[in-house]
Amino acid sequence: MTSPGDHRSSSESAQSTRPLKILIGADTFAPDINGAARFAERLAAGLVQRGHEVHVAAPNSAYRRAAARTEVIEGEPMTMHRLPSVRWAPHDWLRFVWPWRAKHYARAVLDRVQPDVVHIQSHIIIGRGLSRIAHERGIPVIATNHVMAENLLDHSAMPRAWDAQIVKWAWADAARTFALTRAVTTPTRRAADFLERTVGISGVIPISCGIDRSHYLPVVGPREKNRIIFVGRLTAEKQIDVILHAMTKLDPALDVTFDIVGGGDQRKNLENLTRDLGLADRVTFHGRISDEELRALYSRASVFVIASIAELQSIATMEAMASALPVVAADAVALPHLVHDGENGYLFPPGDVTVLAERLTTVLTADAAEYERMQRASLDGVAVHDITRTLDTFEALYRDEPLPE
Length: 405
What we know:
single chain, 405 residues, alpha/beta, Rossmann fold, 2 domains, 8-stranded mixed beta sheet, 14 helices, 37% helix, globular, glycosyltransferase activity, Glyco_trans_1, Glycosyltransferase_grp1, D-inositol 3-phosphate glycosyltransferase
């Protein structure tokens, strides 16, 4: 991994403002709904807005190769290269490119695009292939890691006895990919420290996924009803069952309802658990909804709750903060980077149902002044994650210039 920001000649500096041709490689992208896909979409759209020519290589919705075509993502036109993919059987929507075809597709896309820089969003398949062929051709590669190798185990369909070996292999393969790049980034300092320890690399750069706060509707002040909300994939590592069990420990007089937004392989299990716990009349599974509907749910909610143990940042948490919501979150991985205990919400030990219920009660019973203080702390806290900073930093990496402070 080379270091960004080396000294540049005057002729190179003169070119530093010209538009770039950028190829983003993403193993998950629209219409997928998850944090990594949302980040890649917002990054691509933001780069288009800044005048760059953006191409995206991502899985197709079927096992056939689609001709390069313009798609409008986040309101901006970009060129999509949809690669033949198959659905991963243990997962409800995840699609992937056959690994042994990744280099072939990488060659074809790079031949067509001839980018100035390649930015891969994972080291799994598409990113793996692109990094190797781009490196062979002398095209600089930036890698952003959104992946926790341990998360792959929920969908591996392999015997549990193989888990340790699968994780070891996955991180070793990541190290080989990252060694081919100009820079490796990940959303937070804590995630960067984790990656450096686990993969054995140095110089991982923390760059927030970023958020456009103007897209959200913060309503500061007490709510008419006690509503908690979770937004994200309904998968095992999100530990939504912990939130449901915590609801059973809340004072019935609080009359708390719970909005669950998102789809995933655990939805049916969670719906069954909701019925078993006697919460069916208080919990609503919304599935996948429009951005407008999501903003409305954020604006009426009282508190955002996330029990996940595998967040490298959590765009949904930042969206909630931009909507002026206090947050109750598991004290795990990167969530403490966003949620400062006692300031914009509270942390709880992962999996601890009793403490989670206590933290929710603290927020829901706060007086108007205290509740508004937490709301404003969320708004202040998310300001440093403005998408403008994120785009400035990635542009500097693409151009091999010093990073903005």
